[in-house]
Design goal:
The protein has about 160 residues and is mostly helical. Helices cover about 70% and strands about 0% of the residues. It contains four helices and no strands.
Length: about 160
């Protein structure tokens, strides 16, 4: 994967995370602190959290293809780093009551659910792209074979018209 593709995936990850974190903040906030009111600056917190969650995903960057085992280990490391970052932010925030274990558990479970949803969405997008590329490749091969069989078509071993 090129560096440009890698950056585009991280940008896509950022926007998925922003959406899901906004939903999680709403759900957790409604459940644990429903009477709280915030100013407009609170609208920036999902962007900040998403940016902080993209950073641990950099451990998946590799110039070469990873073995399945290395890929799994990096995914686990990414998840653990993401959990640690989000819990550290929660404990440092004066507006989050981390003295209540249920709040900390809610944050940890939210991070897990968001991580799994992002993984699922990414897999669905990548699967659709792979299917489309395979269909295009099959169409190209079919056209190439038909061209080779046509009178005056390309020779089987060559690359041009004969």
């Amino acid at each position: 994967m090129s560096f440009k593709q890698f950056l585009l995936r991280k940008l896509s990850l950022f926007f998925m995370l922003t959406t899901l974190i906004t939903l999680a903040v709403y759900i957790l906030g409604s459940r644990f602190d429903g009477d709280a009111r915030f100013g407009y600056e609170a609208l920036l917190s999902p962007l900040f959290y998403a940016g902080c969650c993209v950073l641990p995903s950099l451990v998946t960057c590799s110039r070469r293809e990873l073995t399945p085992r290395a890929w799994v280990l990096r995914e686990i490391l990414q998840f653990l780093l993401t959990e640690a970052v989000m819990l550290a932010l929660a404990f440092r925030s004066p507006s989050i009551d981390t003295s209540r274990p249920v709040v900390v558990l809610g944050i940890a479970v939210s991070v897990l659910v968001i991580y799994l949803l992002v993984f699922l969405f990414s897999w669905l997008v990548n699967s659709a792209q792979a299917k489309r590329v395979n269909e295009e490749l099959l169409e190209f091969q079919r056209l190439r074979a038909a061209d080779a069989c046509a009178p005056g078509g390309a020779s089987p071993g060559g690359g041009g018209q004969g």
